[in-house]
Amino acid sequence: MLMEEAKRNNPHPLFKAVAEQEGVPVETIMKGVASGRMVVPANVNHKDIDPRAIGEGLRVKINANIGTSKDFIDVDEELRKADVAVKYGADAVMDLSTGGEINKIRKTIIDHVRVPIGTVPIYQAGLEKALSPNGAVVDLTSDDLFNAIRNHALDGVDFITVHCGITKQTVKRLCENPRTTDVVSRGGSFLTAWILQNEQENPLYAEFDYLLEICKEYEMTLSLGDGMRPGGIADSTDHAQIEELMTLGELVKRSRAANVQAMVEGPGHIPVHQIEANVHLQKSLCDGAPFYVLGPLVTDIAPGYDHIVGAIGGTIAAQAGADFLCYVTPAEHLSLPTIEDVRDGVIASKIAAHAVDLIRGIDLDKDHQMDVARRDRDWDKMYALALDPEKAKERHEERLSSEDDVCSMCGELCAIKITEEYLRPKKDE
Amino acid sequence: MLMEEAKRNNPHPLFKAVAEQEGVPVETIMKGVASGRMVVPANVNHKDIDPRAIGEGLRVKINANIGTSKDFIDVDEELRKADVAVKYGADAVMDLSTGGEINKIRKTIIDHVRVPIGTVPIYQAGLEKALSPNGAVVDLTSDDLFNAIRNHALDGVDFITVHCGITKQTVKRLCENPRTTDVVSRGGSFLTAWILQNEQENPLYAEFDYLLEICKEYEMTLSLGDGMRPGGIADSTDHAQIEELMTLGELVKRSRAANVQAMVEGPGHIPVHQIEANVHLQKSLCDGAPFYVLGPLVTDIAPGYDHIVGAIGGTIAAQAGADFLCYVTPAEHLSLPTIEDVRDGVIASKIAAHAVDLIRGIDLDKDHQMDVARRDRDWDKMYALALDPEKAKERHEERLSSEDDVCSMCGELCAIKITEEYLRPKKDE
Asked: What is the ipTM of this complex?
């Protein structure tokens, strides 16, 4: 187990690789993984993984969700989404496929993608029930759930979202504190319905030790899901959400004791003034475990532009200490994303992550080099330094200026050129 | 003068109109305008104006820049940009035209647009010099500048950007504290060059009382420009910027004493952790004058996506107290924006403004209504409530689900439907 290696101060090759990526001593990684404040998700069966470390003091990481749905099943398109995601900076890819031959699709994606891969096994387990004659997700058995998890582990999935914090007590809190949108997490809705229907405890909570056993066998990292994340601004930071978070904090402790790496997922829809509090609460209740936030989305009224809404929330969350941002695409709340949506979503999240990295002194030089290129009107250098070189070049060249080296906004009234002409000689005097 | 009316507690029809828009008593507006903490830009010659109040405690406002450049001169396109801007929520439009028959274009825009109109008269004055044989912007005379300003005032411009804070002292600070990109404001670059070349004081500062006279004659609001705004992350919050801001604070006092409404412009490129300090500094040095920020842009490396970068900075600035956000389009740093860029820029700024409005309890109901529509899977209602109804409808319908009322992301695994099926009966028990 990587956590054991870290505790033994053994510089595993994966630790060396991520230390080099981050530009930190390998000791920093070992200390972080040993304490549980960093995770390095890397299933023993994910061959040729290009690993990432996620957590305190490191670059802010971003995740892109891909995957088929019942209505859109095209494996090649999903592979292209994964390629686009990684090209523009995704540090992890989650395969959320729920359409077609899910097992085959997952294996194809794992073989194809080198960054860490995440999944949500309950989707597949629930779907199989829902598709069976007269079946429903509430018919899921403990065996169904754990078999799905074991299959994903065996295939090489590096981290799984498991909604272990949806307990009878969490559901009680939800019922006692009504929301507008109740449960918007898919896995969370399955388990809430299951608990209400079966009047039993969530198997992922009741049999958490068994879950830990599977994770140990394959070095699979837990991403403790927030099934009670709010689905609207007015529902944010409520009793059900915090009840679940407290449970997740306890499960983080149990994971660490078993040498299983664990991170914690967070909201969701939160107004800007509550984001910092959400991050501090998670860090405190979960003893500094890496925080993986879904957005957050700071308003509900911008469908079609939720990648922007998520980039705003992601920046504020990362500044407060969130470690891992799940991207949101322009298709959020509307449809299954296209390849172009994946590009837009990844770039928006990358902007959020980078804006926070640079205030920590990470990659600050990239911005400075861009400023130098702008001062020098060196367009090729500007493109090369841009998060999306093709887009920058395309947008500049489609409306060129008739002047040589300036853009069509200011033309000969370019502030930089005028300043250069009159200020530089004075500077040189 | 509106400020005099406010001081006399006279509920001018413009005050009543904006009070109704904001849902506040007219006394709040009068108190705000009298103290200079709010402005209601409304030139006596701007017929049929749909006014706005900008400042403390009000809805966060957004501005869209339009206008021709030397390379793209199409008045109809600029009018369509203005229409698109207002449709998606712009509270003001600045005409920055520098190509074609500028006087005629400006008049056409003022006749066409009902929200407050702003301009930067020095662009036109500088351009005329630059285009004259052997001419250059440094040949500008005081008369050239004030004649341009008077013409804009006469035409009905509601607020003008004037870089009165670029003084000999500010330029000295710049020379003593070198930057990577020196001056990126167009007006700022003209005046910096002018001061260096002519070794005289900036006429807009030296003859500020004359400027106030013109403003009084036409009820034109001053937008005190930040000619020294940083053009890159590494240049932010430096000596030249703060020197200029201190001067602007003094000019705010002189404006108020003359009953001329004034707001103050701010950066620019600022890293996220410095934004709040910039807002507090402006509010303190300028005695609570409305703060009009350009972005801010929180990283330099995302050309093609600067509307997202600006929405992040704008949200953080507005949360800290900025009152008025100048939009940034995806074309920023690359070319003159298209109509589609204007739409993207306005929506991004509107998201930022609204995200902050709702934490002040303003328009919170819009988000709640959207949550109800989502819970009820009422797609027409969702479209109607969206900031961009057409985009939301288009994106949902281009990839419909084969199921009835859900989307193609989750299909029959819709969390909201599952929750409804199993939770609602329990709630009703």
From this structure: 0.97
